[in-house]
Design brief:
There is one protein chain. By secondary structure, the chain is mainly alpha-helical. It folds into three domains: 53-234, no CATH class; 247-412 and 421-520, no CATH class; 557-610. Helix content is 67%, strand content 0%. Helix 13 (281-295) runs parallel beside helix 16 (318-332), helix 16 packs antiparallel against helix 17 and helix 21 (423-440) packs across helix 22. It is extended. It starts with 16 loop residues before the first helix and ends with a helix. 31% of the residues are buried.
Amino acid sequence: MPIFKIPIVHKFGIISHTDHLLLEESLVKNTEEAWKRNKSKGAAKRNPFEVTEQFVQELKLAKEQKEKEQMIEMAQKMLTRNKRKVGLNSMGSGNHVNLPLAWSELALLVQCKGKIQEEALDILLLSLDHAPLHPDQIPVLFFLAESVLYWICVDAVKQSYLYTCEVKIIKLGFLTFLRLFIFHLTGLVQAFKECKYRLHIYLAGLPERAVCYQSYPSVLLGVRFIIRTGEIICGSLKSSEGSSQRTDALENVLYDLQLKTGCQCHRRVTELQQKACNISPVLKECLLVWIYVKHKIQLLDDILKHLLLREQLCNINWIDSALGLLLLGEAAKINMTCLKTLTELGIILMSHFSSQNLKQLSHLYCCILGDICLYGSTSEIQKAALIGCGSSSKLPNRTNTPGLLQLLQIQPATTPGDDQDHGWWVRYGAAYSLEKICHILYGDKNQEGLRNAAWNALQKHQSLEQDTRVLAAIKVAEAELNGPINPFINASCKTSSSLRSSVVIHFLGWRIANILSQFCLPPVVPYIALPRMEPQQPILPRSLVQKQLKVEKKIAGLSLRQEITLAQADRESIPDFNSRTNFNLRRIVEDQWRKELQAKMEDEEKKRELQLQEKQKIVAEDFNEMMKRKEEKLSKKTTICEISL
């Protein structure tokens, strides 16, 4: 085998070892300079309005007034940009919306102090309240959850009083953990093990801080909800023993639902989703109530009579009961029977104050009644949530149930501040909800009567209430609502009427019910076979397309009966819904056009008659004048002849 010798070429010639080291050093230096130049070019291409941690740190450390004002102005532009990215005026949907990126940037801006922090918090709260739920939000939700826990455990402890930003941050944590918990129930959080581990570390110090909020039930509810749902998400809470009870009965209810609605269940959820979804029977029944109301199924009374939530309200696992109340509240916004059942559950809550969990649920119940007063679909439902369901309602066979005004008048204990006085929790929740009603409905002329009733009751109660903890509820509600006006509530904002009319069904409660029903229950709408798609027609030359356009123009002049006959002859079937709709619309347009044409013809005929009459009148006058002139002329000639004779 031949041996090939590869020649060695010295590009730089033969140099000493020292020169070789100097050459390597110069090459490395040139490489670093080129890398820095490329990095500076890339930094110049970066969007100047993109929020980064470096910008936040520079804003915090800015000392000169001019520099600080410039950075605050830049932060305001960043907030404006993020308002569009979260879709505040489009229900969090649209091609311009990027919720994960916008939420992460807003979370960075919350670290700033002053007005920037308040505006960023307000935008986050509004967006988390009405934006849709999507699995791509899970990573940024974990980031928000960790940030909220850090703020509460580090910054909030240093303050001696409850501050506005602290109230908003805890509410932000409530909404964030609520979304994470829903994704946990649907089995979408299982893969985020590292995020759950970090979240578990942040949760360790929160129970000690919960004691600081005992005098503020609205804030304490958010803190306890964060702790409990965080433990469930991180896996430290075992499943309750009663979670498998009455599963067979629930499956029978689902089977009856399928039979009544004619559902063939061809579009079932996948087996993976069914296995991953682990909601309790209580929550499933509340979901069924929401589905019955949404699809107007006539089995609503049967399921409300045997609702498991009545038995589980006093259970240890109060999170399922809280979500059940939330779902029933969404159903009660559009159905009076559900509102009656919800108020009956409220009576059960207020008659059992044996544990801290029931106190939290009683406050949540008051908040749900306040939301129904604000966003109820009818004025009757709003009025019933405010003043209660009396015997004059459509359900005379049931007992009267109190509304917010009656809950505000629950008698306190004999000694103000007594530990046995558990009624102040209910009065706190009622005052908190009434203040929300007065604040949100301010300036709304359509809801002026509802707001006046709430305002009068609240002002009267302020003069009678002796417990300072209840009076603090009004200040907490003001601090929580001290932000921009929700564009889906205020009619003066630039929001389309279609979005504003459907605001009730697009807030977070409705979003939660919708996603849980999709993942955890079979579809209710019966299966309808779609028509077969027609084969795609080949692309025709320009001449043939022009001929077809001429034919279509000729067909457009046919009558409705002829179009239907032609469609039947072409497709050999009955016209579908879209065709019938188009025919009906064309018929309406033709009738309207025919009426306008007939009215126009009648107007022209009247004008023609008037013109003819005027013309005949002018001709007659001309003829009379001509005859007069002839008579005068003849009389003159006759007289001359006679004289000559």
